[in-house]
Specification:
single chain; mainly beta; Neuraminidase; five-stranded mixed sheet; four-stranded antiparallel sheet; 1 helix; 31 strands
Length: about 400
């Protein structure tokens, strides 16, 4: 699954807010006609927080597949040994101190890479290459593209176009098809506003549906919805008196449901627990968890188990309404697909800002910090083995798995 995009929320605000997290904040109503230039930080790299790690060696496989990282405006591949690194792209930034590439995705099934190169005062470029950065081809150059997301079979890319809506198009080339146009604002008296923009969040494993972020064009609010690719029908996930959170959501392995956390509409903080919503009708129920009073981050489902990071729900949520927000350590855990006892998989905990699970649940890649000047990318094995530092640097925004052997 995936990442998305550029704004980093600090501390507790990112962890508790129902708005999208680092990887999935949609453009706001005030986004200018030209896509904003994403600039590179230039301050010296401070010392990272001390999380015990082991150093990988090139003589053994650490990762389940190669890992692609968007760092410093270029795409870098880390091989399975966790040591060997190759810069895949050499795109030209649009200005001094600007980042060239601002979003990407890769389809492990076909080893196809797509990415967005930003421009200034003109549309961005949607580029396609192979997994090594070869056979470069411009798919689009006439729209302000964001959030490119490849289908599981690698044949289709979904993306948002500024002020237009949600598109899909063949990766082989061709005309993009608008499947979900933005809904214009017509009534400012409606709570949350009635205008909506749409950004792709995750393909269903069978490629028939898209989980999307439906974000308000007038206020900071985001909802979860499912789009049927064959009919274009959209179904919003429902949770009684609560709002499904755009920050935490994942498909079930059978493509029939979505696991998600919920937000209290009165303060936009995440509520404890996890919900499961039907992809067809949007009806959702709370998953019975033991203990029940836990915040859940980064859920991921295999055919057998549900994986996530959890932490006890703060006793005094009211104290978190103003900064500074405390850091919250989350523990890697697992539970039955139908709920039950949460089993810790490790005896340590992490402050989470971005997470990418291995397809088999054998571990997860995490960002250690939300500050791009001190990000460490760590592999966290689910069997309790020591974490492995994979990458450290500035302007690290996205990660994605390549093709497994």
């Amino acid at each position: 699954m995936h990442y998305h995009r550029f704004i980093l929320l600090l501390g507790m605000l990112a962890l508790m807010s129902g708005c999208a997290s680092v990887a999935n904040i949609p453009p706001s109503a005030s986004t200018p006609p030209a896509a904003p230039t994403v600039t590179s930080t230039s301050a010296p790299l401070p010392d990272a927080a001390s999380i015990p790690t082991t150093q990988p060696t090139p003589d053994r496989a650490v990762l389940p597949a190669p890992l692609y990282i968007l760092a410093g405006g270029q795409i870098v591949r880390i091989e399975r040994d966790g040591v060997t690194q190759t810069q895949i792209t050499t795109e030209t930034p649009p200005a001094v101190d600007a980042l060239a590439i601002v979003a990407f995705d890769i389809a492990p099934a076909t080893a196809t890479l797509v990415y967005v190169v930003q421009n200034i005062d003109k549309p961005s470029l949607l580029i396609r290459t192979d997994a090594d950065g070869n056979w470069r081809s411009v798919l689009l150059d006439d729209r302000f593209v964001s959030f490119p997301l490849l289908s599981p079979d690698g044949s289709t890319v979904a993306f948002s176009a500024f002020d237009e809506g949600l598109y899909v198009m063949p990766v082989a080339g061709g005309e993009p098809r608008l499947i979900l146009p933005n809904q214009p604002v017509t009534d400012l008296t409606v709570s949350g506003g009635d205008g909506r923009g749409f950004a792709p969040a995750a393909w269903s494993p069978n490629g028939a549906r898209l989980l999307v972020h439906a974000y308000s064009l007038t206020v900071e609010r985001c909802e979860l919805a499912v789009v049927d690719l064959s009919s274009g029908a959209i179904t919003y996930l429902k949770a009684p008196e609560l709002i499904p959170s755009c920050a935490t959501a994942a498909w079930s392995a059978d493509s029939q449901s979505i696991y998600f956390s919920v937000v209290n509409p009165s303060n936009l903080f995440n509520e404890p627990g996890l919900w499961q919503g039907n992809a067809v009708d949007g009806i959702s129920t709370a998953l019975p968890l033991e203990p029940a009073n836990v915040l859940v981050r980064a859920p991921f489902a295999t055919q057998e188990r549900l994986y996530a990071f959890v932490t006890p729900f703060p006793a005094q949520v009211a104290d978190l309404d103003v900064p500074p927000y405390p850091e919250m350590p989350f523990t890697m855990s697992s539970v039955s697909l139908t709920g039950g006892l949460l089993l810790p998989l490790r005896n340590d905990a992490f402050t989470l800002y971005q997470t990418l699970w291995a397809d088999n649940g054998s571990g997860a890649v995490i960002f250690e910090s939300s500050d791009p000047m001190q990000v460490r990318v760590l592999w966290v094995p689910a069997n309790g083995d020591p974490t492995v530092e994979l990458y450290r640097g500035q302007d690290i925004y996205e990660i994605a798995w390549g093709r497994a052997p």
